[in-house]
Amino acid sequence: MRAPGFWHEPSGVLSGLLSPFGALYAAGTARRLRRGARASVGVPVICIGNINAGGTGKTPTAIAVAQRLADRGVAAHAVTRGYGGKLEGPIRVDERAHTANDVGDEALLLAAFLPTWVSADRLAGAQAAVAAGAECLILDDGFQNPALAYDLSVIVVDAWRGFGNGYVIPAGPLREPIDVGLGRADMVLSIGPDVAQQRFKKAWGARVTLPHLTGALEPLPTGLPLDGLPVLAFAGIGHPEKFFQTLRSLGADLHATHALADHQPLSDTLMTRLLREAYQRGAQVVTTEKDAVRLSPEFRAQVMTVPVRLQVDDWSPLDAALDRILATA
């Protein structure tokens, strides 16, 4: 489902009316987080989370952190809930055997870069990963899950949208109040171009007292012939317009754009319609890596994928934190 438009607008009447329900939601989150003692699994645990509902760039961040660990010779495994998949796990993702219907699109994308475990029970997934040789765990999401003790937690936020109208679900996009969530975290990473970073700093900088990293998702130089190419683009991610803007920046001639719901299934009916429309427009169908893993083999060969990677302006705060938690492991 799509986020309501008023979540990302200045607070108004509807947000105010729904705010008592937001207070109840926040109280439920706090109660769940107080439940029981967080478990340790014997290796460092890094949580890549958010306090916003929806996509903020957690998976690209998890991939980038995994690369920083690989550069140190640390065997990191990812643990994720497998949102959108039917398997409860714990199970290690096999790209050759599993589909997005099994384990979710984010797990498949992670598995292309590091061993990845899907588990509805985060503790069981973590234990399975450690038993398989993980020297460090990266949780893709799970900041509001009370199962595991974290050695480092990074809150990822979309710099364009920030914390929306500042209200908790259903009055706004937040899973918990800003000060409460950031009070449990170690650092914040805002993702977006310079103009978005300036907007985020102006709106929310006074509330972010933690170490604050800034970065952007940059397309890989793959040599894709996008300059001047007629394109029909679709994206089922947290903020599809960001992907469409990336294509424009690469010179693509966007004849049509289709913003799908985050994680929306790419049915044969939907893809047949999109391909037919692209044929009629004389355009190439283009999508994101995250969407591409949800395509059936029949359609994947007909759709161009534009990969992006997280580029952080200054890695030193995160690198120092990684050195610290690895030294004490």
- Rg (CA only): 20 Å
By helix and strand content, what is the structural category? alpha/beta
| Relative helix content | 25-40%
Q: How many strand segments?
A: 13
The strands making up the biggest β-sheet line up spatially as 3-4-2-5-1-6-7-8-13
Outline type: globular
Distance between the termini: 41 Å
Q: What is the N-to-C order of secondary-structure elements (H for helix, E for strand)?
A: HEHEEHHEHEEHEHEEHEHEHHEEH
Could you walk me through the main structural features you see in this protein, from its secondary elements to its overall organization?
The protein is α/β, with parallel strands linked by helices and 329 residues long. It folds into two domains: 5-75 and 135-217 and 311-327, no CATH class; 230-306, Rossmann fold (3-Layer(aba) Sandwich). It is 36% helix and 20% strand. It has twelve helices and 13 strands. The protein has helices spanning 13-33, 58-71, 100-103, 105-111, 122-131, 178-183, 194-204, 240-249, 268-281, 289-292, 297-300, 316-327; strands spanning 45-49, 76-80, 91-92, 116-118, 136-140, 152-158, 187-191, 212-219, 230-235, 253-259, 284-288, 304-306, 308-312. A nine-stranded mixed β-sheet has the order 3-4-2-5-1-6-7-8-13, sandwiched between helices. The longest helix is centred in the first third of the chain and has 21 residues, at 13-33. The protein starts with 12 loop residues before the first helix and ends with a helix. The mean pLDDT is 92.
